[in-house]
């Protein structure tokens, strides 16, 4: 083998090694880029989800205020009118307005929950559903109170335990440890916080 052939061979080997090094660097760069993209997606979905969770929690709490202001009733509301239908329609008006922000919060929670499920799977879906069911409990309670008013309080007279349960769902108790919805929401919010916290810690 001549010197020129040896030099050519060495040059080819060096060029091959350089090309291999370039490919390795490119692959490493792509992997880092993909990891960074996933990290950003995790962070953004986590942030949006936990914000939706807090909004849901707060809107449920506002809607369950034990104090009903006069301004919440229809215009020209007459508290002296004791007709069953009138009382039922008045409370239906109050609850409808209290319920609207809850519906918006539920919709936002569902949207963010779907994005989280796409990234992390069924466990996060289950937690979101666990939280969302409290809105259904509240809605059932509101409807039960309206139905009871329509029947001139006969429903709850016949079943005082039912009346107590439904009223406790509609109006938040001063003692949180005895409040079914508050306890359930706080427990699920804590689980969700623990789940998303690692995704919020971006390197």
Q: What's the N-to-C terminus distance?
A: 55 Å
Largest sheet: none
Number of domains as seen in the coordinates: 1
Question: Approximately how much beta-strand content do the residues carry?
Answer: under 5%
- Count of strand segments: 0
Helix count equals 6
Keywords: Membrane, Transmembrane, Transmembrane helix
What would you say this structure looks like, in words?
The chain is mainly α. Helix content is 81%, strand content 0%. The chain has six helices and no strands. Helix 1 runs antiparallel to helix 6 and helix 3 packs across helix 5. The protein starts with a helix and ends with a helix.
Could you give a short description of this structure?
This protein is an all-alpha fold and 203 residues long. Helix content is 81%, strand content 0%. The chain crosses the membrane at residues 6-30.
Set down the secondary structure blueprint.
Layout: H1 3-63, H2 84-120, H3 122-150, H4 154-158, H5 160-170, H6 180-200
Keywords: Membrane, Transmembrane, Transmembrane helix
Q: Notable features of this structure?
A:
81% helix; mainly alpha; elongated; 6 helices
């Amino acid at each position: 083998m001549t010197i020129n052939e040896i030099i050519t061979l060495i040059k080819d080997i060096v060029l091959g090694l350089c090309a291999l090094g370039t490919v390795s660097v490119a692959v490493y760069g792509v992997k880092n880029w993909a990891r960074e993209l996933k990290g950003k997606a995790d962070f953004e979905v986590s942030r949006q989800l936990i914000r939706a969770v807090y909004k849901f929690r707060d809107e449920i709490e506002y809607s369950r205020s034990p104090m009903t202001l006069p301004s919440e009733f229809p215009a020209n509301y007459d508290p002296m009118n004791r007709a069953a239908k009138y009382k039922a329609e008045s409370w239906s008006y109050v609850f409808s307005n209290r319920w609207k922000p809850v519906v918006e919060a539920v919709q936002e929670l569902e949207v963010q929950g779907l994005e989280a499920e796409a990234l992390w799977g069924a466990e996060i879906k289950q937690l979101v559903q666990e939280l969302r069911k409290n809105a259904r409990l509240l809605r059932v309670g509101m409807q039960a109170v309206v139905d009871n008013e329509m029947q001139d309080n006969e429903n709850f007279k016949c079943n005082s335990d039912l009346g107590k349960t439904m009223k406790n769902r509609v109006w938040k108790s001063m003692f949180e440890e005895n409040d079914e919805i508050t306890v359930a929401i706080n427990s699920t919010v804590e689980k969700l916080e623990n789940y998303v916290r690692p995704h919020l810690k971006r390197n």
